[in-house]
Specification:
The chain has no helices and 9 strands. The chain has 119 residues and is an all-beta fold. The chain has a single domain, classed as Immunoglobulin-like. The N terminus is likely disordered.
Amino acid sequence: MMCKSVLIALGTVALAACHGGTQLSATPSALSSCPESANGSVVTVQWNASKDVKDGTVKLWVRSPNGDDAEPTMWAAQLPEGSLATGKWAVPGMQISLTDANGAHTLAQIRIGRTPCKH
């Protein structure tokens, strides 16, 4: 299945949907590109896949900003609706994907944005 994404950046929220009603967002949706932020920041990820996943769990996957060809790393298996904070490891350009329980179908994905460094 080809995933069509709609990305809306409103300062704190980015949404992407691939199936009927799955939503995935991150707060903040963009992180500073300043060198002092290079070690990472905490981002809260919220999702709702309850319209596409009736029973079971979903999986959250992360991929580094430079890892488009690399396999994503599974971050968590959760209920179809919820939220979870990253550790202080989220960086600009990092991709977060939400899949079904077996990881075969991508329900939604977002990429953490980058804000210019202002000194």
